[in-house]
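just leaving the lab so this will be short. below you get a single protein, a line of residues and a line of whole numbers that encode the local backbone shape. id like you to explain what the token line says about the fold, in plain words if possible. thanks a lot i owe you, the record is right below:

…
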Amino acid sequence: MKLYAGIDLHSSNCYLGIIDEQLDKVLGKRVRNSLPLIIDCLAPYKKDIQGVVVESTYNWYWLVDGLQEHGYRVHLANPAAIKQYEGIKYSDDKWDSLWLAHLLKLDILPQGYIYPKETRPIRDLLRRRMLFVRQRTADILSFQSMITRNTGARMSVNNIKKLAEANLGQLFSNPDLIFMAQRYLSIIDFLSQQIKTIEKQAMKKIGLTESFKWLCTITGVGKILAMVIMMEVGDIARFNKVGNYCSYCRCVRSERFSNGKKKGMGNKKNGNKYLSWAYVEAANFCIRHNPQAAKFYQRKKAKSNGIVAIKALSNKLARASYYMMRDQVPFESQMLFA
């Protein structure tokens, strides 16, 4: 008898449900988040279980890895793409777990990508780097605002990075302002050191693969940004079409139209926020060093605004990089901006 299992995962516990081929419940049990306990619950049914569905939450790593190591065929469910069952007034964790198993049995389960365990820590390390970059940028902008507010002068970001504590007396006369400025500089310097350390560690652990080396041919994209894209994409073959990839990178609008009229919005958070950030960064660098990209950006900006123009350019770069990674070809600016 074929069985199908679904696990509704939470922060401290999970609900395990198993159904048979007639969609009848075989097991329903709430279990504490402990791999040995979950394995013990599944053990009596292991030879008949065709697959185990785990809901993709923030803490799925340990469970999916553990189940795979014990020989189970694991599927990662994409909650954002699952259509909720209709006509039921009441639902809870039990019904959620059985619904996941139900979708697997019918072979209509929207699945997420199970990133390889071996390289997952490097990907997460680069994600922490992005967090530190954002924090450093926020502190620099706050310090820049403080300088303008108290002196009336505007100091560029590059000059703030070069600013030394010995020069603060020339900017401010008040000792409290000097003290505050020293705190800003120490935080900015600390974050810069951590960012460099993470970059060295990542480059030492893993290098760009052959298909991703072509990303460095994009104007403004260096090894670190190319590595971020490489680690977030994983296997480019998992995207059947360029549109699927751009949607995953959040480079397209989430809107629904009918007869030329806007009928609603989709889920804007669908996709990978880290790839979205990476391509926006690539677009900002590209307009500085690529005249054709700068002209494209200015045309778009004149019709709308700077944010829309940057997103439009990031979409073009995402589309181009998809073909570059898939076909292993270099970046051709003339073809992209023809």
Residues 3-105 form a domain with the Nucleotidyltransferase; domain 5 fold (CATH 3.30.420.40).
